[in-house]
User: Fold this.
Amino acid sequence: MVQFKSALAAGALLASAANAVTPVVVDGSDFVNAISGARFQMIGVAYQPGGAAGFDPGSGVDPLSDEAVCLRDAILMQRAGINTVRIYNLDPEIDHTACMSIFNAAGIYLVLDVNSPLPNESINRAAPWESYNEDYMRRVFQIIEAFKNFPNTLGFFSANEVINEESDPSVPSYIRAVTRDIKDYISAHSERYIPVGYSAADVRPLLADTFNYLGCELENSTASKMDFFGLNSYSWCGDATFEEAGYDILVEEFSGAHVPVFFSEYGCNEVKPRTFTEVGSIYSTPMSGVFSGGLVYEYSEEPNEYGLVVINEDNSIELKQDYLNLVDQYAQIDLEALTAANGTATGLEAPICESSMITSNLTNSFDVPERLPEVQDLIDNGVGGTWPTGVAEVSNTAEVATVTGPDGNELTGLELRILAEDQSNLPGENTSGTDGDGGPGLTKPSTTSSGSGSSQTGSSAASSSKVNVGAIVLAGLTLGVWAQL
Assistant:
């Protein structure tokens, strides 16, 4: 049985409630607000402070284990205009209530990977039949349990970049099997339906086949169809154009998509500092009519040099010019047009699976591996344990860490803005903080230089004293189970 390694154990229930964001659901090829129906576009960032060091199972440490760190980073994300965060590696044995509550108060959703880099905690691309077993699925279901009751849990990735030109041709069928099992577990044990999708590498020869295989409708396995599709793409470098980056090809390729498509990673760093001129294309027509936004890689600076901020050993933060450039680009988004309902997108349906859809070396057999009896037992009876019941009220909102801009000036007066009930974050919601000159701490973009790097998750963890978080909600979210799309 799982026992939480946090002072905020699920049994320590108090009477106060907390404002909560409205869950996001899938409607055709759009994410939408479950109550208002407004279209939701991801304005997001990948978040794995510490990388391998920040994910240390058994120690009580992962990216959402320290309230002070989460408050520090949520303030800077909210200030940037971010509304979605992706996290790759999490420990289901930790109570994440405090951090999830902080991000909820900031109006920030999370899309979470269910896997980890440890042995037997992800699909083996060379021999997927070996990794699909009871122990693997038990841990996957524990991740679901650990986050299902938070309203700002937007979705789960069943796999990340497992399909490539070296992977076994049968890998897609096992991704569908894992997706099926996750969706059936959610339907059996969650009070609301939470979307499940896949994050793909930008391997153009396999991209269409990957989307077609994972997204088509199987009459004998409807739950195995993905609910959304993420693409990790770094094709826009520096001041590229829409055509030079191949975005026109992506728009054409996904124009008939029947599930939401978004960049689950983007932000080439061959030119530094990054100017993020692709933001103007991602969040305007024709791309915004096909893509549901994207997630910049990544929040913290690591050896691969993709960070927006530098986290120092004393827990202080240095904002890179990349952060300021991204804020400037976000500020130019036409938010009203971005959230307008898309009637065409919501009327799309998945095609029936046919072998003719697959033209690469991926399997064209749609025989999804049969569910193991042991996994069925987990779905029927649950994984056991004590789990969080919902978000908590956040009482401390002031930034306690030292934050400096690229010019060396300290930003003071930074604080989390607790948004109103059902409100999600957007650029301009948080304008707190001034620098030593009395200004907002923003400087003009500096000159660029050449560089290179590769997409990966890794960094050095920060630690600090705890932030007091208020009472835990007495009951989980009760919106009802949403029908699978």
User: Anything to note?
Assistant: The chain has one domain: 24-472.
